[in-house]
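agent> Task received from the user: take the single chain below, predict its 3D structure, and emit structure tokens. No templates, no multimer pairing.
agent> Plan: (1) validate residues, (2) run structure prediction, (3) serialize to tokens, (4) report one or two observations.
agent> Step 1 OK, no nonstandard residues flagged.
tool_call: predict_structure(input=
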Amino acid sequence: LTVDKLNNNDILVEISYLYYEMNLTQQEIADRLYISRTNVSRLLTEAREKGIVKITVNYPYEDHVKLEQQLRETFGLSEALVVNSQSLYSKESFELVCKMAANHIRNNVNNETILSVSRGRTFKNIIKYVKPFCAYPDMQIVQLTGLFEHIQQANFEEFDLVRALSDLYQCKSYCMMVPFLVENPELCEQLTNRPIIKNVLNMSEKVNTLYSSVTSIDQWQKYISEKDFADIKRTKAVGSIEGYFFDINGQIIDMPIYKRMIFPKRSIFETPKRICITSNTFKIPALLGALRGGLVNSVITDSKVAFHLLKATNQM
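)
tool_result: status=success, residues=316
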């Protein structure tokens, strides 16, 4: 981009410069130029349409194509995106995966999207890199699970991530201020039958885009009681997605704990776009199970995870 004056396109150049080169938010630009944020979004779109802004993705790796192709063919995926992490520290790799996921969100949502994202550190980090092309007021974002009551870092919770995304896209969001896990099935039934909660849970059947991560079994130890954790460890579960535990082949395991959980219906795994994002090698068994069982149909990861994932597949 340049800051040269371009006749009648001066405002488009200025806004593009502030957004793409100065990294100002749309709201900051709106405040500076005394216009609405909606107008900023519209003008950025116009700048791209007129060719004032041209977006090119320069991948920081060379061997991603082969790994992506192998992942797609091995697991029958719709899409596989791989960051080359061969010479990177885990933190650097994590950041690149998050940036790629943020770019994927930006390029794959629109006014018809009904979106849900998982809770956790990965998605908290992804959202800080999301820069919408424009507002999508008819888009809907849905919280699928309740909240972990004892976790102090509230900004990791799905509720906060949903609200952050809805603010970015200036769209509707549907949230539940209820616990994820309750004391008994009776209380769970009472809560899920409340009209506002029931409405949000029913929205899970309408979600058409799900960005999720996989959770390893050991990660659950900090979220649930010792008894519940011991019960899960006694099964053949290798991981979970959206609260559902599954084995190495991706078969969902029926658990008594489900009767006390406020989470989506199992039909969530029929969502058209189910994108899994991870850069943690300790999650490979969980990711392998999720891919084998078709619980997700796209993956965004790094080359270390992709390599070991394919290696584990060939050894079994």
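agent> Step 4: summary for the user.
The CA atoms of residues 281 and 305 lie 5 Å apart.
agent> Done.
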